[in-house]
Amino acid sequence: PDAVTFVLYSGKTVSRSLPPSCATVDHSAHVLVQITDSSGRPHQQEQKISAHLELVSNPDSNSQPRVTSLPVIMVSLSEYEVSYMPVSRGKHTLSILVNGCHINGSPFTVTAYPNPRHLGEPVNYLPNLSGPFGIAFNKRNEVIVSELEGQRLSVFDNKRQKIRTIPLYKDSPHLTIFPKGVTTDDANNIYVTSEHKLQKYDSNGKLIKCIGAEGTKEGEFNSLRGITLHKNQVYVCDRNNDRLQVFDLDLNFVRTIGSLPMDKCEFKEPIDVKFDTGGNMYVTEIGNRKVQVRDASGHFIREFGQEGEQKLLRPSGLKVADK
């Protein structure tokens, strides 16, 4: 043939320009190879099509690369369907050949991701919680859970035994009623977000400081959500103000991220924030349905989650692995 093109599709969605770049473990994907002449007309002679999928790297094991031959179905003299289904997550190469020659772009790099519907059963659980919302771990290897409906913090040891409860009394103007985000520092102090307040407690639950009120000024909030610590600074997601606010460990205001007119990638309803070991921050946004990656100063690096099979619907909680 004079020219070889292809169409990548999944279900009823057709994309006529992108090579296969991602797939889902145990989920079938397809490539439609279209063969044309130099004028773009469908070729009318049967061709020999072969394809194989090779696992190049698997983060779950040190096994050797594995090559799997793929089925090819002739749809017509000018169209052939290649089907593949990764069985392991990781980097693969997808090779498609016509008469022994790779089509344009082959071999393709295909990254297989775990099926979000088959992430396994829980290996453990924490009992007797009332509306659990946020979770954190302190230096004692204790687990702190904020209970939205219970209006309290519950602390568990590493054997899932509840060792204390921190009630958040509604008759005190300084204490939150509905705790949401929670995190801890190196001294095991606890930081908690509620709708419009940010609190700091010692490890026994004694209130150290409470700041905030509903508003848009520095140190004011509108529906606080996620919280994290990075290099002795407290980062909070000020959801309905479409920004992050940063404080020191004494809850003194430091700066705002994401609400300046010069920011080309403003946040829209940020929900959670975490840092990787390189100091980059990851922010989930319900409003934009994506995850933004920025450096510690707030400068935009990249974003993901808006396209393809890994498209996010309402990204909320977030955890960044160390590796």
How would you describe the overall organization of this protein?
It contains no helices and 27 strands. With 323 residues, the chain is mostly beta strands. A hairpin with a 5-residue loop joins strand 12 and strand 13 (143-147). The strands form 6 sheets. Strands 3, 5, 6, 9, 10 and 11 form a 6-stranded mixed beta sheet that branches. It has a 5-stranded antiparallel beta sheet with strand order 2-1-4-8-7, with no helix packed on it. Strands 12-13-14-15 form a 4-stranded antiparallel beta sheet, with no helix packed on it. It has 2 domains: 3-113, Immunoglobulins (Immunoglobulin-like, Sandwich), CATH 2.60.40.10; 132-262, Neuraminidase. 0% of the residues lie in helices and 45% in strands.
List the helices and strands and how they pair.
Blueprint: E1 3-10, E2 13-15, E3 22-24, E4 29-36, E5 49-57, E6 66-69, E7 72-76, E8 79-84, E9 90-98, E10 101-102, E11 108-113, E12 132-137, E13 143-147, E14 152-156, E15 162-167, E16 182-184, E17 190-193, E18 198-201, E19 207-211, E20 224-230, E21 233-238, E22 243-248, E23 253-257, E24 270-275, E25 281-285, E26 290-294, E27 300-304
Parallel strand pairs: 3-11
Antiparallel strand pairs: 1-2, 1-4, 4-8, 5-6, 5-9, 7-8, 9-10, 9-11, 12-13, 13-14, 14-15, 16-17, 17-18, 18-19, 20-21, 21-22, 22-23, 24-25, 25-26, 26-27
Assembly category: single chain
What's the gyration radius in Å? 26 Å
Q: Can you tell me the number of structural domains?
A: 2
CATH topology of the largest domain: Neuraminidase
User: What average pLDDT do the residues reach?
Assistant: 82
Residue fraction in strands: over 45%
By CATH reckoning, the class of the largest domain would read: Mainly Beta
How many strand elements? 27
Structural class comes to mainly beta
Number of helices: 0
Instruction: Write the element-wise H/E pattern from the N-terminal end onward.
Output: EEEEEEEEEEEEEEEEEEEEEEEEEEE
At the fourth CATH level, what is the homologous superfamily of the largest domain?
A: TolB, C-terminal domain
CATH architecture of the largest domain: 6 Propeller
Tertiary shape: elongated
Query: Quick one: biggest sheet?
Result: 6 strands, mixed
Helix amount = under 10%
Which residues sit in consecutive blocks of at least 5 with pLDDT less than 50? Answer: 6-18
